[in-house]
Amino acid sequence: MPRIRVQVDPDLCIGAASCVTIAPETFQLNEENKAWVFDHGQEPEGHTYERWLEVTDEEKENILLAAQSCPTLAILIFNEEGEQLFPEP
Amino acid sequence: MRFLIIGGGVAGTTAAQELRKRDASADITILSEEHHPLYSRVLLPHYITGKIPRERVFLKRDGWYGEQNIDWQAGVVAQHMDAKNKFVGGSDGREYPYDKLLVATGGEVRALSEDLRGVSYLRTLDDADHLLQLLTQQGGMARAGIYGGGFIACEYLNFFAHFQIPTTLAHRGAHFWTRLLLPEAGELIAKHLIKNGVEVHPNSTLEHLEGDKELAGFVTSTGQHAATILGVGIGIEPDFSWLREAGIEVGRGVKANEFLETNAPDVYTAGDIAEFFDPILGRQLQIGNWMNAMSHGRTVAKTMSGERTSVQLVSSYATNALGLEIIFVGDVERAAAQEIYTLGSITQGGITQVFQRGGRVVGAAIIGRNRDRTPITKAIERKQPFSSLDLS
To answer: What is the pTM of this model?
Structure first.
């Protein structure tokens, strides 16, 4: 299963919630109206704006779709080698 | 198969991308009024306040269209169409034939009847460039006015606060969003703005501008105000004439069913301009936000390529006005609601209005109470009544 790093830039996030709509298992809005990163609906080690996720190929595609749908490009996705998958650098 | 898309914004471009994914050999053409490749309008505020550089607003490169084998006609506006012989006439004098047509033209800003240097609108990247130019040129001499009581006014409030420019705000209604908000919620916003140093003038209709070539002030029905920059946000006004003449049914927007099909065969619509039947909200309405436009683009592409798919989304719009968070979810038109429930108060610093119709929640205006957003969104999706919500 691919391992990816998912990161939300809280400074860019405006709470548009596109990511929450597309990938609710990975993104949920907090009280500041910004998206925490979840691991399959869970928050091991508490709230965070970035974490490593082990996902299926299908889940990875969906998380990428969520990142692509963000109107402020506040979601960054990296692969295991540290290459930025989105936004394309 | 020839797909023709009118409008190069997020609805049209997302549709083009999805159509290409589903059909490698189809002809796909986009007519786009703007010369820029797709960019995020939602990023324009971050660009204006210097949070991101200009190049970061772009979501596609010029070269992307060619790589995807999408014929991108920049700077071309649709001027007329023939729904029987299936072609659209462009402002470049060409006729563009189609098998399936998508109308995703969004909206033009409603403009004032007068224009002076210093009047600013906020819809396009060119508008943002223009505003930045004014701010740079005027520097510490700037005096700001805002005309409007909606989302664009909020953006201008934040810009002028960021640049520390004294600001006077005037709007026609008694408070912000009079069609959506009850007076108490409107008062909460006004009080917050006044507390933050904004001069607020409700019930004020703009009468005329002052100044020779450069703006010096503006006069409303309630007074005269000095201003060297006037940010105008009084709604959008799409051009429907070419569609009407072609027999396309138009109301507030382009009328469509839940599949985004218009009354004309093989003509579809998406995004801000679509007045579509929303199967979750249970009525035909127009929604102008990013999430809605992008989702429409994806959905309509499926339908256009033969997999008839209905819109299924509770979309929302979030902003803040000088730090006060404002979120609208679902259907927030007062006139379309049967009951409106209010939570919170001005003294608590937050008010949520929940809109109910047919015994279930259809929308909410959430001001300074972010925590209400998720439970209310779920209640709308699940078609639950207000009484099922546990919001304190």
So the answer is: 0.96
